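Translate structure to sequence.
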């Protein structure tokens, strides 16, 4: 900051101009501050030395704050790395490269920073209640499209749990194409879901559609679901990012893999690290299935990101007869889980009946999934 040496003392220059005395120290400080302000920092990863001292780490954090960026610390088994995320601009790798305690500085070139594999080499494991997803842990999420009644949900939960599902799903807030279709039971549905989940010892996941519903859903559920229609509801993503509840983020029906990862980035950037991605098919010219299941998204995402990815063959195909084959294909493709809709009387279901598996079909599918998960080295707890 420019500072007058003696604010009261104006000295007349030979040219009749007023000269302001600036001390050497404040001039240096001024130059340094303006230099720092101009250094728009490209996102980068600081790989810390294994012997970095706390004082060195504190100093690194100070410098990150000084350039107006945010640190995202990732504690690996071998190494600690700090993601430096802020405005995009020219790389200022040199700023950090010469600092004690830092072994290496690597720019993150991908537009999704925190979600990228560069940021974290190891797979992220997301915990939903007592169930783990990712890094070798496999999730089997099952339940009806919508919560319709307590006895109805209870019967379905009992059946899917017995067959081997480890997370119960059910929608209380339903995003329906028609405003005249069943919209869900709202809070009453959430209460039923919680009660039934607890009765069967299953964590529960349910959709949240609006930032105003976040606190309510956070209270009743173990995991948020962001549906395909809301994948780019950025206010919703930011609000969920403020919580510490895990999120099942479904791919939008016309979203690219990059779009999906950018949406995950919104949640991660707010400090919520528990994101599980979900491939649920995208719109295409093919009209014999509800959507087109992009199975390549699974290995694709695995290469680009450390986040777990699961597959939802129910919404992807919309057809009961195709779901088992696609669920098995998902396991073979390396998915960290499968998400399917199950109903004991699909013809009476208030939403998505045609794609609901019957409980006995789900049980047969689970036999295959267990075998495949084992082949793929996955643990299904
Ligand atoms: C659902 O899970 O019931 C749902 C509406 O899914 P999607 O957002 O994938 O269409
Ligand atoms: Mn559904």
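Result:
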């Amino acid at each position: 900051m420019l500072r007058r040496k003696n604010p009261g003392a104006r000295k007349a220059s030979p040219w009749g101009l007023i000269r302001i005395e600036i001390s050497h120290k404040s001039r240096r400080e001024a130059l340094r501050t303006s230099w720092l302000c101009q250094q728009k920092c490209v996102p980068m990863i600081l790989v810390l030395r294994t012997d970095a001292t706390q004082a060195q780490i504190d100093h690194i954090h100070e410098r990150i704050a000084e350039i107006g960026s945010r640190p995202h610390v990732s504690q690996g088994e071998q190494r600690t790395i700090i993601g430096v995320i802020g405005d995009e601009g020219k790389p200022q790798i040199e700023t950090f490269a010469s600092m004690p305690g830092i072994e290496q500085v690597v720019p993150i070139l991908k537009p999704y920073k925190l979600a990228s594999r560069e940021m974290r080499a190891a797979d992220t494991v997301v915990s939903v209640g007592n169930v783990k997803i990712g890094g070798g842990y496999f999730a089997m999420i099952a339940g009806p499209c919508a919560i319709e009644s307590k006895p109805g949900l209870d019967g379905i939960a009992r059946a899917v749990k017995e067959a081997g599902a480890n997370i119960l799903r059910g929608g209380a807030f339903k995003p329906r194409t028609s405003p005249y279709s069943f919209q869900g039971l709202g809070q009453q549905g959430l209460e039923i879901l919680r009660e039934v989940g607890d009765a069967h010892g299953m964590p529960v996941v349910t959709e949240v559609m609006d930032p105003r519903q976040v606190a309510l859903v956070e209270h009743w559920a173990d995991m948020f679901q962001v549906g395909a229609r809301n994948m780019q509801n950025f206010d919703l993503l930011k609000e969920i990012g403020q919580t510490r509840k895990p999120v099942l983020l479904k791919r939008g029906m016309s979203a690219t893999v990059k779009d999906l990862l950018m949406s995950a980035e919104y949640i991660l950037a707010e400090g919520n690290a528990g994101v599980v991605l979900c491939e649920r098919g995208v719109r295409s010219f093919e009209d014999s299935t509800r959507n087109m299941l992009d199975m390549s998204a699974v290995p694709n995402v695995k290469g680009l990101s450390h986040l777990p990815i699961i597959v939802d063959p129910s919404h992807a195909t919309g057809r009961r007869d195709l779901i088992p084959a696609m669920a098995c294909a998902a396991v073979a493709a390396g998915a960290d889980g499968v998400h399917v809709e199950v109903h004991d009387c699909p013809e009476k279901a208030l939403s998505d009946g045609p794609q609901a598996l019957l409980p006995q079909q789900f049980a047969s599918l689970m036999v295959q999934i267990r075998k495949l998960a084992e082949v793929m080295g996955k643990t299904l707890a």
